Amino acid sequence: MLLLVAVSIDSIVSNPRFEWDVVGDYLFDDRILDGLVLTLELTVAAMAAGIVLGVLLAVMRLSPNPLVAGASGFYIWLFRGTPVLVQLLFWNFIAALYPEISIGVPFGGPEFFSIQANSAITPFVAALLGLGLNEGAYMAEIVRAGILSVDEGQHQAAHSLGMSRLQTMRRIVLPQAMRVIIPPTGNETISMLKTTSLVSVIATAELLYAAQLIYAENYRTIPLLIVASIWYLALTTVLTIGQYYLERHFGRGSARELPLTPWQRFTRIVVPRHAEPATEPEASGR
Amino acid sequence: MLLLVAVSIDSIVSNPRFEWDVVGDYLFDDRILDGLVLTLELTVAAMAAGIVLGVLLAVMRLSPNPLVAGASGFYIWLFRGTPVLVQLLFWNFIAALYPEISIGVPFGGPEFFSIQANSAITPFVAALLGLGLNEGAYMAEIVRAGILSVDEGQHQAAHSLGMSRLQTMRRIVLPQAMRVIIPPTGNETISMLKTTSLVSVIATAELLYAAQLIYAENYRTIPLLIVASIWYLALTTVLTIGQYYLERHFGRGSARELPLTPWQRFTRIVVPRHAEPATEPEASGR
Amino acid sequence: MTEPMVRAEQVHKRFGRLAVLKGVSLTVMPGEVTCVIGPSGSGKSTFLRCVNHLEKIDAGRLSVDGQLVGYRQEGDKLYELREREVARNRAEIGMVFQHFNLFGHMTALQNVCAAPVQVLGIARQEAREHGIELLRRVGLEDKRDAYPSQLSGGQQQRVAIARALAMRPKLMLFDEPTSALDPELVGDVLAVMRGLAESGMTMIVVTHEMGFAREVADTVVFMDGGVIVEAGTPSELLANPREARTRDFLGKVL
Amino acid sequence: MTEPMVRAEQVHKRFGRLAVLKGVSLTVMPGEVTCVIGPSGSGKSTFLRCVNHLEKIDAGRLSVDGQLVGYRQEGDKLYELREREVARNRAEIGMVFQHFNLFGHMTALQNVCAAPVQVLGIARQEAREHGIELLRRVGLEDKRDAYPSQLSGGQQQRVAIARALAMRPKLMLFDEPTSALDPELVGDVLAVMRGLAESGMTMIVVTHEMGFAREVADTVVFMDGGVIVEAGTPSELLANPREARTRDFLGKVL
Amino acid sequence: AGCGSEDDESGGTATTSAPAETSGGGAAAAGTIAIPDALRGKGTLVVATDPTYAPNEFVDRDGTTIIGMDVDLIDAIGERLGLEVDVQRATFDAIIPGLAARRYDVGISSFTDTREREQTVDFVTYFRAGTSFYVREGGPDVTTLEDVCGEKVAVEKGTIQATDVQRQNRRCATPADLQVYPDQNGANLAIQSGRADIGMADSPVAAYIVKQSNGMFRLDGEPYGTAPYGIAIPKGSGLARPVLEAVRALMRDGTYMAILRRWGVEQGAIDNPKINGAID
Ligand SMILES: Nc1ncnc2c1ncn2[C@@H]1O[C@H](COP(=O)(O)OP(=O)(O)OP(=O)(O)O)[C@@H](O)[C@H]1O
Ligand SMILES: Nc1ncnc2c1ncn2[C@@H]1O[C@H](COP(=O)(O)OP(=O)(O)OP(=O)(O)O)[C@@H](O)[C@H]1O
Ligand SMILES: [Mg+2]
Ligand SMILES: [Mg+2]
């Protein structure tokens, strides 16, 4: 097993087709770094929008009011159902369809407010709209699954204490749903890092597109894709670690023992057993 | 609210830029339909592979054996961390890196088996490898969240009855985890419908790429993207309905009342209350 | 004449085709302690849940402290209350569940303080002090930072009682509050409840502690099959039941 | 001399820094019924879980039917058992939990039949018939198709007992099996357990039913603070406890 | 939208070659060509290009500037029209909808002018490209289009080569295995890995690819055929005629040839630009 890994690492490092020298040259290229920054900005902004929207849509979806639940269901259907590429193009070129965005009374009523679509919606705004609105639909399903995973008794206990539906959601249900919500949200965030590459259709050069632009010029496709992959892996590593600690945080009080953090595992080996840190027993559930 | 919807439907139908006649022309075009079939084949196959792999990886990830858990963690990190685009290119063009795939003893030992990479890995196989292996990493996280959502007492009760770890997973934990696993898996499936469009980088024409090839030729971008969107929406509708019934199925015995199916809601209105179907009371939880 | 605290008239409740309450009528005056006994499945829990409007009743009339539960009457018409109003009414009724239902992500003390802070808007520090005091009353001051999953069943139920008391409710509903407690602790908790009763708290207690019922209850009610079979003072009902079913049940229990 | 069914010698168990079992020694002979009593938090549940190898012990020796729990001895060395072997040993020990832990996605009958079919490989039809028979024994033949969430607490616990009996175990562990049952049903369940005891089943019962202990137990064990304070026949221990702590506890409970 | 009066200059009626009007008067000085008022007011010509097609349009080493033959030409055209030129990056999927949305005024991205495409946008032709073959070093030989029959051919989507091979396939005994990649890189990677054997691209692009390949690829056979490149302009925008005049002016004063020479693509020069000049 370890041999296998060693052999494959060897064959990757020594294979000339990977052109590791070129990888090194471009790893910190300005264009790549600019793309990286944009990727990060878009991911953070779109995920933030997606999560807020998702929580809202999920709560709506579970509402007893069929109109509210239906509206949310329709949104989820529509935005999950159409390709993000199309949504991005739509937001960017909404001007082709509606050259002016105006708010007013329809059917010839007065117009309150009107703006040129092209100037209101910059490519960055279009990218955010496209990615965020789309992500909201996916997050809604994830949050809904999380809410459903919390025991009905928790709702009832909260209600019997006089908490409103929203307070119950916010204070009681969602915090306990987090354990179930976090892993797929990690998936979504990591996906989003890469979905941002679709915004290249509206000419915003995030990480992958930056690499593509470079290899379009010099045809060093493989090393440049490796450069992009290295950066994506680095970002994923950071996110995975963040996810790990978030899961620990929201796992508090849950019915299973928390896994040790790598750091605790380390001290556990170095420091003798009976000298365990004082916080240890508190942290472990039944 | 309804007025708003009516107004926007009106403005969509009557807007000439959508070129609805062109949409009609291409909706059942052979190339589009072929692409649709390929999209379906790839989605079904890749999701099947991804789900099987994901369950395996999730169970491994929660294993008490640190080597097994670590191997699974590494896989998840690597495959979530690199863009699918790169993975697809890697599998399709592995020949550029390793013209021959051979199985044998490394470091000059005998070779047991050797094959031309290009003939072993057809573009379809490459697409499946790329999409399926990648999806496995995402599904692993979703399944893991599901498993964690099942009360620890369930494990213990099953263990005390002499069930092995695998039996417990298969018979007791996973069925109850399904409620939490299904919604994000629905997300993944619907995403996958669209992720298949990435296989265009290996010159395989699924739905969206088929549309792109057509508009690359005739420049009718908007109507052809509408054609693709209509098909995606149709597929999403089918999947959403399927998901709804799956959730109902796995929600049996859960702590909340099952929502009525649209059909039941219909009969509920038409048929007077005291003539409810005989199965009704069984279906509602406490 | 004072208004009754709880007045139920011909309350009906069904789940699908299963009728669980088939016309329950009961009046509880302020300061009264009513104990409800009855066999499993007789609808005791369901009735308590209706009083707290956790279930909607299908027919009949149910009011708490003069106010219809879940409805507002204007003239002859009934209007369904809005969620906010239902919540406000529930906040004045404490409930202790058979299955604890502690909030799993909060420590014992946080469980006790959450609702007073969130719902009543009491200052955090004040709620905390009151919470510690209540935990002491149920004998758990040293477990204040433990999560429910780290407590035994008995400990969990005591936290649940403290949590309900923290809202200073005008009516307390107990659904077998001692059924998961260790015998040696039952006494302590019953003492707390006795103290509550003496301080004038109106209480409906579903219980199988006949000793408690005999000593504390003003009225004992025997439910079976979704109806109240018999009601009376403890001495009447427990010592000289009129109905055969009651006699039968008591014969098994005592 | 027959081999004891359970032999515990100086069993220790700690959670983090909290020592829960501090040297528990106990021998249970085949066919014997041992009742364990003791205050909340004294480690009764933890001890049962160790016997069933749901928890690993930290020090001491624990064997069931002559086999070390979780280890295999070859010469002087102990080898940890593989998962499959641990599972096989567990299958021979029935356990009824304080909190039922019924499988939520299965009906009552499915709960009872699952393990016999999966673990013992009994034919589905046979398991079903046996399952129906067991449900009848706990008075729930009419609830066989109900899901746990549709059953009251009492009903759930009775299904859990039937589920454990379905494995035809050679040792049964009960963790407060009647604490969530209605008084009128406790008698029925205790009757089932009494029948079991008479049929020669070896049982360890954590309980607060002193009547049951007095009548059925061969040995009563009083635990407190992670150790066995006192053990003896029911008449010795319950009537004439030697230790002050035991007297104290019994004074509160009886 | 909707200055319908100018629709006459397009309308799919092909070759409205109009040398008559202004041809006599000498070099059109900067700013003397009449352009629509809206554009005049805006003062900027927004140009879309997909800069992944060196040497015609690609991104310079600084990562932001787009350079290439097309860019130099459109800069010069803008100067003739008295407009600032703002070249924006876009992928192919976005350019046509972007023109329709008037987000871009024109698109210049090595577009081949075809009859079918003229249904959607107007083209002003400005160049003529042949097709070159290139193969992996050690790969099969190819001299003419007939030789692709039975071979594995990689091309970029939307190129004239994709259409050419499709047409040729109807005449082949064993048709070629045509692989259409989303971009030229995909095609190159396919050839590099042996998944395809023959690459086809516009001559200047093919030459550039071979130069960049470090000896991995070589040009093979003779370039064939010619197809016009056109600047894509939304129908009804009133811009086709001014652009046409600007191109003519550039040809007259030698700027045009100078630009082509700078990029080494003077073989593709034309002398009679047209609105919608597709050849059948
Ligand atoms: N996994 C765990 N982690 C930390 N503490 C634990 C764990 N399990 C049990 N404890 C603690 O160990 C002590 C003994 O618990 P145990 O459940 O064995 O007591 P018990 O005698 O069964 O009590 P009860 O009658 O209340 O069920 C308690 O203080 C409990 O809080
Ligand atoms: N949501 C529900 N859906 C269907 N049946 C229900 C529901 N809730 C309760 N029941 C059924 O209603 C009957 C009465 O239940 P309830 O919990 O009120 O009884 P109880 O008197 O409290 O019994 P116990 O003493 O066992 O708790 C039971 O047969 C139960 O199975
Ligand atoms: Mg009840
Ligand atoms: Mg216990």
Please provide a written account of the structure.
The complex is a heteropentamer, with 2 copies of chain A (286 residues), 2 copies of chain C (254 residues) and 1 copy of chain E (280 residues). Chain A is mainly α and 286 residues long. Helix content of chain A is 73%, strand content 4%. Chain A has helices at residues 2-14, 20-27, 30-61, 66-81, 84-92, 94-97, 117-120, 123-149, 152-160, 165-195, 207-218, 221-250, 262-270, 280-283; strands spanning 100-104, 111-116. A two-stranded antiparallel sheet of chain A has the order 1-2. In chain A, helix 2 packs across helix 12. The longest helix of chain A has 32 residues, at 30-61. By secondary structure, chain C is an alpha/beta fold. Chain C is 38% helix and 27% strand. In chain C, the strands form 3 sheets. Chain C has a 6-stranded mixed β-sheet, sandwiched between helices. In chain C, strands 2-1-4-5 form a 4-stranded antiparallel β-sheet, covered by helices on one side. A two-stranded antiparallel ribbon of chain C has the order 6-7. In chain C, a hairpin with a 2-residue loop joins strand 11 and strand 12. The N and C termini of chain C lie far apart (37 Å). The two termini of chain E are 32 Å apart. Helix content of chain E is 31%, strand content 25%. Residues 1-28 of chain E have low confidence and may be disordered. Classes of the chains: A mainly alpha (286), C alpha/beta (254), E alpha/beta (280). The interface between A and B is large, with 59 and 59 residues. One magnesium ion (MG) is lined by residues 44-45, 98, 175 of chain C.
Largest sheet of chain E: 5 strands, mixed
CATH architecture of chain A: Orthogonal Bundle
The set of bound ligands, ions and cofactors reads: adenosine-5'-triphosphate, magnesium ion
Radius of gyration of chain E: 19 Å
How many strands appear in the DSSP assignment of chain E?
A: 11
pLDDT < 50 runs, ≥5 residues of chain E: 1-28
Order of helices and strands of chain A: HHHHHHEEHHHHHHHH
Instruction: Estimate the helix proportion of chain E, in percent.
Output: 25-40%
- The CATH superfamily label of chain A reads MetI-like
Oligomer: heteropentamer
Beta strand count of chain A: 2
- The total of helices of chain E stands at 10
Radius of gyration of chain A: 24 Å
CATH topology of chain A: MetI-like fold
- Indicate the proportion of strand residues of chain A: under 5%
